[in-house]
Structures are given as structure tokens and as C-alpha cells.
Amino acid sequence: MNKIISLLFLLAFSAEVHSQVPKEKLLIDYDFLVQELRVNHQGLYQYVEKEIVDQKIDSIRNTIEATDKVEFFKKVSALIALTNEGHSGAEPSFWTKTKLGLSKSFIPIGMEFSDKKVILTKYYSKHNPGLEFGDQILSINGNTLPSIMQNLKPYIVTDGFNETSFYEWVSWEFPLQYALAYGKHKTFKIKIKKYDSKEIKTFTINATSLPKIKDEKNRLNTVKRPSDFEYKTIADSIGYLSIPDFYSHEDFQKFYLESFTEIKKKNIKHLIIDVQENVGGAEGNENLLVSYLIKEPFQKYEKVLAPRNLYDNFKNDKSDIEDGWSIVKDIPHRGKFTLMSDYYSNFNYKKPQQELVYTGKVYVLTSGVTFSGGAEFSSMLKMTDRALFIGEETGGTYEGNVSGYDHYVKLPNTKIKVKIPIVHYKINVKPEQPGLGVIPDYKVFQKWSDIVKGKNSKFEFALNLIRENNE
Predict the structure, then answer these.
(1) In degrees, to the nearest 5, what angle opens at C-alpha 242 toward C-alphas 240 and 246?
(2) I need a surface site. Which of 1, 145, 294, 378 has the fewest CB within 10 A?
(3) Neighbours of 353 (CB within 10 A)
């Protein structure tokens, strides 16, 4: 019996791998998703005029022909990228993921970017021809890295017109993204430049499967920069507060209280807040941190809206316990209190003691990873002119995002699962250039040398800036 089941599984898997989906069925899936986006995605036409977006939607549609589900997934990814909202996403069907994952066609490397230079940081294979941590990757299979990045852009969704987050998202899933864009390969020729040298070499490495990449240890002698929740006093008047996210700490209220108690005790004049790795988290945690930096509450959101047809799915959600959702002129929106900077969601946080609210100078370190709640935290300090920003443009836009509740749809024929964020958190700002993140006052990239040495370039810049201004 087990042999029969196994045989049936293999036959089904083989059919899935090699079959093409008729054009008519793919068009049904595509049109279905377009309609869902138009009805439910609050940001589809936020940054680009409707006429232009619709032209691009039609342009993608006109390229659809009978093909397999992997190729069609690329069309879906390109469509979702038109939303200009990084909380959107798509996931192939189980069979398609299995087909992709089990094929030995993935390049077994990880990377980090240094001002668009690609630095090798991970290698997932026991057989290493000579690659080292810190090598700069110049080309793969004859394609330069700038040309590869250009080919990946249509498939990766970012907030607004942001580019810094694009490079970060690429570095997180490069083997998969490269395979989607360039197809299957058994081997890869990588041309690299050695760190602190003019030496250029070319190596050939074997492809592997995604499970192997996930299970295999990084074989390079990696130097990592520390990234954890911590407060430490750097010098007599300088403090450093690291907040790598707004979701994983077991007790944010306690951590903030202890940190700012120590800041008060040490009479800190210059506070560096590091949110370079902060992709966001639970609403309220970023607001509480802002409450330790600004005494008077202010209006954070201009409005918070959602689609009318999905209102019944969340209207009784207990997470909005203060003044939650209601209908005004047939549009679901959040109450007035929830628009304010001292709204802590359902956490029941207490407002900071006034004597602990920090009034010294604040320096915020940002990157393309600074996203969602991390970007909202940055936006609040930017809109109140409370901090100097050092680093890169935040991955999340200055004017907010579409996130919160998600609406999931499954395409009827290809079974691709699409996540559509539905709540528009519109921050109370009017940027001169919509669709950009918080732009730093001092643009600082992670240096190639600091990647190799495990140093934090933006932190070092902030220290030097403080010391130079106080000499």
C-alpha cells in the first residue's frame, strides 16, 4: 500500500513539474488577482497615477502565454511589485515550492551590500574552491552584479520608490531570486575581488537545493556585528541604545524603563539609537519608545483606513481596545485616540515618568532594513525634528504604510497564495517627494572594511560626529 501511495505521489509530482498551464487559465488567475488588488489594496494607486499603474498591469498581462507555474509566479511577483508596498507578498503552491526547492539549481551564497558593492558573507557548501568572507563579487556566469540587480527589480516589492530596502531584500533571499530570474544552473562561475587587494579570481561552484542551503552551515570564517537589545554608556556623556525590532523582546516596557533610568542616572547628553536592523513589529512598542523621547503626545497618523467589504473580518478585534474601528461615510476608520503617539495598542503600557523622558540630543542609525514599525519610529522623530539621522534611507516610507490586517487569496488555477495588506496607516506628514523613506542627515553606508572587521560604520560615524562637535 505504501509503495502505491509513493508511486502516486511521484506521478503527481512529475505531472506538476512538467505540465504547462493553458494561457486561458493563467489569464483567469491574473485577472482575479488584479481585481482583488484594486478592491482591497489601499495603496495600489498611492504613489503612481492610476492610468500609469493600469498600463503596467495590462503590459504584464499581454506577455502571458501558456507556461509552467514557476514562470507564471514571476508574472504575479511583477504585478505585486506595482503595489509599491513591501508588506505585500506571494507564495507559490506546495507543488511549485517543492519543484523549486528540490531542484539542484541554487547558488549557495549569502551577501551584504556596501554602497551597492556585493560582499560575500556566506557560503553553504563543504566544497569550497577558495572563496573567503569579505570577497567582493563582481559577476556570476558572466553577468555583472549591477545587471543582475536590474533584472531582479521587477520581482521584488518595496515601499514607494525605495531602493535601500530592495538591496536588503535581495541579500536575504538571493539564491531563490537569482533562480527565478535566471533559471536553472548546475554550476556557477563567480568572479571576485579580494579584500584590500587588486587580485581578481574566478571560481566555479556547484549548485545545490534550497533545503541544503537552509540546513548547511555557513562555511566562511564570518565576523558578525552584534545586534541585540542593549543599552550601554559609551563615554561620560554618550549612550547607545540598540532596538533591533519591535516584536521579540520579552518585556519592552521593562527594557525601556531600565534603559532610560540608566540614561537619567548617567546624565547622558548624546543618545545614539540604533534601528538599522529594525523591520518593525507590534503596534505600540515604537510609540512607547517615542514617549521616552518626546514629552507631549502628538498626532502620529492623519488617518487609518480599511476596505469596507472586509470590515466584518476585524471590526470586533480586541487589540483595539481604546477606540477601535467604526464606520464614517461608509469607510472603516480608527478612532481619534489611536491616531496619537501615546497609543500603546492592547499592551496596557503606562506612560513614562516625566523625569525619565530624555531631553538631550538624539542620533538615529537607519538602513534599508528599517521598515514598518521601525520606519514609523523614524518618521515620528523626523516629523517632530527630534533627531539627527545617520545611515541610509529607511526601507519604509516617511508617510506610512499599508499593513496591519492581511487579506489572503488563493489563485484558482495555479494555487499561488497572495497576501494583501489592507490597513492604510497614513502618517500625518506631507513629504515634498512622496514614496521615499526618511532621508538621513548624514548618508553613511556600511564600509567594506567594516563588514570584514565586524564593525558598525554608522555607529562609528555618530561617535566621531559627537566628539568633533564637542571639542
Answers:
(1) 150
(2) 1
(3) 12
Residues 6+ apart with CB under 8 A from 31: 61
What pLDDT sits at residue 318? 56
- pLDDT of amino acid 145: 95
Helix axes 69-81, 23-40, angle to 10 degrees: 20
- How many residues are present in the chain? 471
In Å, the largest CA–CA distance within the chain is: 81
Determine the Cα–Cα distance for residues 304 and 290; give it in Å rounded to an integer: 19
pLDDT for 322: 56
pLDDT along the chain (471 residues), means of 10: 37 53 97 96 91 97 94 94 94 78 86 94 93 97 96 91 93 90 92 94 93 83 88 94 97 98 97 97 95 96 88 66 70 82 89 96 98 98 98 97 92 96 94 95 97 96 93 63
Torsion of CA 21, 27, 31, 36, to 10 degrees: 0
Nearby residues of 99 by Cβ (< 8 Å), 6 or more positions away: 13, 16, 17, 69, 70
Question: Mind spelling out the 3-state secondary structure of the chain?
Answer: CHHHHHHHHHHHHHHHHHCCECHHHHHHHHHHHHHHHHHHCCCCCCCCCHHHHHHHHHHHHCCCCCECHHHHHHHHHHHHHCCCCCCCEEECCHHHHHHHHHCCCECCEEEEEECCEEEEEEECCCCCCCCCCCCEEEEECCEEHHHHHHHHHHHCCCCCCCCHHHHHHHHHCHHHHHHHHHCCCCEEEEEEECCCCCCEEEEEEECECHHHHHHCCCCCCCCCCCCCCEEEEEECCEEEEECCCECCCCCHHHHHHHHHHHHHHCCCCEEEEECCCCCCECCCHHHHHHHCCCCCCCECEEEEECCHHHHHHCCCCCCCCCCCEEEECCEEEECCHHHECCCCCCCCCCCCCHHHCCCCEEEEEECCCCCCHHHHHHHHHHHCCCCEEEECCCCCECCEEEEEEEEEEECCCCCCEEEEEEEEEEECCCCCCCCCECCCCEECCCCHHHHHHCCCHHHHHHHHHHHHHCC
**pTM of the predicted protein model:** 0.92
Neighbours of 59 (CB within 10 A): 10
Instruction: Summarize pLDDT for 2-51 with one digit per residue, the tens.
Output: 433 333 333 344 445 457 999 999 999 999 999 999 999 988 999 999 99
Distances (CA, A) of 468 to 247, 268, 456, 462: 35, 17, 18, 10
**Site of grid cell 530570474:** 181
